[in-house]
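Box S2. Input/output pair 1.
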Amino acid sequence: SVGAGAGWSTADGASGKLFWEHRNIAGGGEKLRTVLRLAEIRQAVEGTLRVPAFIRRDQTLTLSADVTRQTPAAYTEEGASLLAGIERRASETWTSFMGVGIDADRTSRGDSTGTAWLVSQPTRLTRDTTGDPLNPQKGTRFGAALVSHGGTYDGRGLAFVTLELTGSAYWPLGGGERPPVCALSERPRFRRPISLRGDISGV
């Protein structure tokens, strides 16, 4: 499938998105998704491959990569990341994830440039009671991710831990198939928060 979208926000200005997705690319239910994001101060290319029943029937192998460029007023940042992990379903509502990621970033401000290399180890636990991942009409979703990071910035060692929480709730406005009222929050992507990037680089 192919799709597109457009939007505007006070953070990114005007933005657009193009995506291509194949839900059975190798004949075993493997899902490949690529996304191109274009905004006034941020551009990104993303790719994700999900392989179900990996070694065990209740496990999914997830491989993802992205390349980004951000140009806010204070600095310019170019980065790339790779992530590999295993998602395991513990029950109908609970799912866990463990993985390893590599993140490389170069940040420029004026005449100064800094380069960071990080290895991350994300662990995530999610609870989903909606019963429908594509078109939820009721229920809740909650996620908690603990990510440990270690690496270097311009040759200096650094290490830190981040905790990411997400949640959403859905309930119908009335009977029938009406769209639900919902509060949405994106799944953690395990990239370093921009605030931490600024603290590290001195921006």
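Box S3. Input/output pair 2.
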Amino acid sequence: SDRPRAARLLLTCRRRRSSGRPGPHGSAAAALDALPELARTAGRGRLRIPSAGEAAREIEAAGRCGARFVAWGEPDYPRPLAAIDTAPPLIAVRGAVSALARPMVAIVGSRNASAAGALFAERLAADLGAAGFVVASGLARGIDTGAHRAALATGTVAVLAGGHDRVYPDANRPLLERIVAEGGAAVTEMPFGWEPRGQDFP
């Protein structure tokens, strides 16, 4: 079930951050029970563990849109992402998970880019793709859109600010479908139904 998996993940993260020493909670269930207090102590505010029903609905929603969950510590979790302190414990991925394992460069920029800026971003993305890099961006208008389009043939990853079912901007939904269909991937740490906010963009 998902409760033991989430608890295992929490214990793994605790072990990682304590230089290999076992977590202090003793069991997966105890670790999950301690999570809200750990979050409060770390200054992250209130945290609520989802119910088994909520977790099941999230898994069903992922299945309907062709996404799958990858947890920190699992083989398909991107190594560079796992190396940062704020790595999300769980990501939802659509498309080629293998794209996340390739060397990657992020290109992000203004939504109201000048023509020269957009052209530069497209050329840069195309050159990086030709050199073997996957181009990551946030699927926003402007620079992000140009970077994704220029890297479709070589591989691009869209890092979404909302849930997989809340693509923003909606005008880029066809681009997202091309990314997923043509060997790239879409990834988010946000749950289904999460409406993107400004602070959620990469």
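Caption for Box S3: DSSP finds seven helices and six strands in the chain. The longest helix spans residues 2-17.
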